[in-house]
Design brief:
single chain, mainly alpha, three-stranded antiparallel beta sheet
Length: about 160
């Protein structure tokens, strides 16, 4: 298999895995948790608390979910076009993380209640210090963006290759 095909497959498999694990854990949170009740997972460090979020990642921003739905769709479409063109396996992984995270929350915004394109994102991971409650899609987005920033600060061009 060629390196290009391997990177393309890594991008799609990573994005699919992120979406799958995100949606499965959200369904588990809905099934097992009561709205607003906090349950210890790892002591007081990580707790599970089900909330429905009509804002951006980590409950930031405002409640205009339909705008966030459009932004998610545009981001996913852009990554579907750009992701398969990355030049390294690390960038394929980064693009897969970002694509999966954007798509995971985008699916919620488009398909979940209260209505089509105005759905609320399922959040359930709570950490101390009044940090906003989040989900795995948020986590993968942050990891992907952090890796992207790190690599570009180290001289990579976005998507791979060394800058001039």
């Amino acid at each position: 298999m060629s390196a290009v095909k391997t990177r393309r497959n890594l991008f799609f498999v990573t994005a699919f895995f992120v979406i799958l694990i995100d949606q499965i854990t959200k369904e588990m949170a809905i099934f097992f948790l009561s709205l607003g009740t906090s349950v210890p997972f790892i002591g007081e460090i990580i707790r599970f608390r089900l909330v429905y979020n009509d804002s951006a990642a980590f409950s930031l921003s405002f409640g205009a979910t339909w705008i966030l739905s459009i932004i998610s769709i545009v981001a996913v479409l852009g990554l579907l076009w750009y992701g398969p063109k990355v030049k390294t396996t690390l960038w394929a992984l980064i693009a897969g993380f970002v694509m999966g995270g954007a798509a995971g929350n985008g699916i919620d915004r488009v398909l979940r209640e209260p209505q089509l394109f105005s759905g609320h994102v399922v959040d359930f991971i709570q950490v101390p210090f009044n940090f906003p409650i989040f989900n795995l899609a948020d986590s993968f987005l942050v990891i992907g963006v952090a890796l992207m920033i790190y690599r570009t600060l180290r001289g990579d061009q976005i998507g791979g290759g060394v800058g001039k």
